[in-house]
Design brief:
By secondary structure, this protein is mainly α. Helices cover 52% and strands 11% of the residues. The protein is built from eleven helices and seven strands.
């Protein structure tokens, strides 16, 4: 299959670390025998370490493995899981927990909030390439080239967001370049998209908006005690009210 689609020699072959000792050497031997060559087929063989849970390795064979759909049902956007993975080096074991997934989701939200603010400023900025911007891209490229060191590359992207000495348009362009590696869809991802309704939530979005409209009316009427009661009811239903925030509200994600 690899020869059919990629040719007799291609750049990278990936797989789990459990394939390094037996499966991949066997595959290399087959490649060499079939092609009558000493070349292993791929120039680079990369092996990612396990995603583990305190109860053991997460895998289909072990049983009880979490699927991406399970995380979505709990209110976590799939890109939060990608962010969690990017925060660890692929050669090291990554321990899964809902606390670490929640932290990754929060980090992703902060990046998206900063990008949305930059987009509001960007039309006033001419697109220009500066030495400072080029230096940030060079640092990012160096970390990615160092065996895909994404844990050290992510903070450079976050540094771009706060560099007031670089125009907003250029910062957006730099982040777009970096995200070609990270795959977080930062050019289009919005905070609203990150607000996923958990399966256990008792309200739908229309009901939440209706409750918030009632709360706003009560506050306008200076019925603050009743407005606070509505807020408490929303919190009991798993909704966090964000006063003064353009998003307005989001679901409270729990494990």
């Amino acid at each position: 299959m690899s020869m059919k689609y990629l040719g007799e020699r291609f750049d990278i072959h990936t797989g789990g670390i459990d394939h390094r000792a037996i499966h991949h050497p066997n595959e290399i031997a087959q490649n060499q025998a079939y092609s009558c060559s000493c070349h292993p087929g791929a120039s680079v063989w990369m092996h990612n370490n396990f995603l583990i849970h305190r109860s053991g390795k997460l895998s289909k064979s072990a049983g009880g493995a979490l699927l991406l759909g399970d995380l979505v049902e709990r209110g976590y956007h799939p890109l939060a899981f990608r962010m969690m993975c990017l925060q660890a080096h692929y050669r090291r074991e990554l321990e899964f927990s809902f606390a670490s997934l929640g932290a990754a989701l929060t980090r992703l939200k902060r990046i998206v909030i900063a990008l949305e603010a930059l987009r509001r400023l960007a039309p006033a900025d001419p697109l220009a390439e500066t030495e400072a911007g080029a230096a940030l891209l060079q640092r990012f490229d160096a970390e990615v080239a160092d065996d895909l060191m994404t844990p050290r590359a992510l903070p450079i992207l976050e540094e771009v967001l706060v560099r007031d000495d670089i125009a907003s348009t250029e910062r957006l362009a730099i982040v777009r370049r970096m995200d070609e590696v990270l795959g977080l869809r930062l050019d289009s991802l919005s905070r609203v998209e990150l607000r996923i309704r958990p399966a256990f939530a008792t309200l739908d979005e229309a009901a939440v908006e209706a409750q918030l409209a009632t709360r706003r009316m009560l506050r306008d009427q200076k019925s603050f005690a009743e407005a606070d009661r509505v807020r408490s009811l929303l919190e009991e239903a798993g909704v966090v009210v964000l006063d003064g925030d353009p998003l307005g509200w989001e679901w409270r994600v729990t494990a």
